[in-house]
Amino acid sequence: MKLVLNKDKMQIIREQDVVPFRNRVKEYATKIGMGIVNQTKLITAASELVRNMLKYGGGGEALIEVISQGRDNGIRLTFTDKGPGITDIPLAMKDGYTTGKSLGVGLPGARRLVNEFDIKSTPGSGTTVCIIKWKNG
Amino acid sequence: MDRIPILRMGQYLLVTIQIDLYDRLATNLESDLVQAVSKTGARGVLIDISALSIVDSFMGRILNNIGSMSKIMDAETVVVGMQPAVAITLIELGLELKGVHTALNVEKGMELLAAKINSAYEDPDEDEAGTE
Ligand SMILES: Nc1ncnc2c1ncn2[C@@H]1O[C@H](COP(=O)(O)OP(=O)(O)OP(=O)(O)O)[C@@H](O)[C@H]1O
Ligand SMILES: [Mg+2]
């Protein structure tokens, strides 16, 4: 069972929100004693997802939670936007797939960098991506 | 601050990124550097990223762009000082810094640039000869 120890919400509406958001995630990860490599992986994944939310979802909300499960603590991040959504999730998750003339590494890369990755999308009403990085994961 | 200073030293351009970059700052750096290479005819660009705590696909793309555009103008680019955690993360993310050379620190980076530039000068057909 996952217990939520702490909660924090941030609105992401402009490119300038990216760095403060990353710093906030870093604060929480440092607070629970997450090591530098896991922190870097978490923040990089977060950066990719927050950029997607801005670029494709028209901005949205990022929820930062400190969670615990058994002996391990971790950070759970949930990105919610009310953009156009993704019709074919397996395709969007493929390395190199992009509709934005980019590299297509964001989603598949973010999944590799964290311990748990969950994406839900309803075409026409939005996308939610949730990731968890355990302190010792 | 909305511009990162570019230092000129002989045939080299040196940039030290001292803070985590906002996107605007990164895209400004890209265009400033490319302009500086073309204006000065620099042969080497060294970018110190030791203060960067993360490099995501956006920043990776900027670095690659700087490298490939400089290459077109006959300048080599070396990125130095990447933190180990950043290097590990980039590999797992699946982003390759194909457009640039990398070195451990500024000193090694300068050596690498000097070697690249001199070898190109002494033997301009080196690449072609190597594939025959
Ligand atoms: N929040 C979102 N809302 C709508 N579509 C999205 C969202 N996030 C991702 N997508 C779609 O999934 C595709 C793949 O996303 P991914 O992050 O892997 O690559 P990218 O953003 O195109 O490129 P990169 O992340 O390398 O810059 C995007 O091109 C876009 O079509
Ligand atoms: Mg992306």
What can you see in these coordinates?
- The complex is a heterodimer of chains A (137) and B (132).
- Chain A has 137 residues and is an alpha+beta fold.
- Chain A has one domain: Heat Shock Protein 90, CATH 3.30.565.10.
- Chain A contains 4 helices and 5 strands.
- Chain A is globular, with a radius of gyration of 14 Å.
- The mean pLDDT of chain A is 96.
- Chain B is of the alpha/beta class and 132 residues long.
- Chain B has a single domain (6-122), classed as STAS domain (Transcription Regulator spoIIAA, 2-Layer Sandwich), CATH 3.30.750.24.
- Chain B has a 5-stranded mixed β-sheet, with helices on both faces.
- In chain B, strand 1 (7-9) and strand 2 (12-16) form a beta hairpin.
- The longest helix of chain B is centred in the N-terminal third of the chain and has 18 residues, at 23-40.
- Chain B is globular.
- Chain B starts with 6 loop residues before the first strand and ends with a helix.
- Classes of the chains: A alpha+beta (137), B alpha/beta (132).
- Chain A binds chain B through residues 15-16, 18-19, 22-23, 26, 36-37, 39-41, 43-44, 47-48, 51, 95, 102-103, 105-106, 108-110, 112-113, and chain B through 20-24, 53-58, 61, 83-86, 88-89, 92-95.
- Bound molecules: adenosine-5'-triphosphate and magnesium ion.
What does this entry show, briefly?
The complex is a heterodimer of chains A (137) and B (132). Chain A is an alpha+beta fold and 137 residues long.
